[in-house]
Amino acid sequence: MKYVVIIGDGMADRPVKGLGSKTPLQKAFKPNMDRLVLEGIIGKVRTIPAGFHPGSDIANLNILGYNPMEFYSGRAPLEAASIGIKLERDDVAYRCNLVTLKFNKDKTKAVMEDYSGGHITTEDARELINDINRGIGTEQISFYAGVSYRHIMVWSSGALNNECIPPHDITGKDITDYLPVGDGEDVLRGLMLKSTDILISHPVNRERIKRGDKPANSIWLWGQGKKLSLPTFRQKYSLDGALVSAVDLMKGIGIYAGFEILGVPGITGYLDTNYVGKAEAALKALEKVDLAYIHVEAPDEAGHSGNYNDKVKAIEDFDALVVGTVLRGIESFDEYRILLLPDHATPIEVRTHTDEPVPFVIYDSRIKRKNEGVAFDESITGRKDILVFEEGYKLMEYFIKGH
Question: Please, what are the domains in the chain?
Answer without folding.
Answer: 2-72+230-401 (3.40.720.10), 82-225 (no CATH)
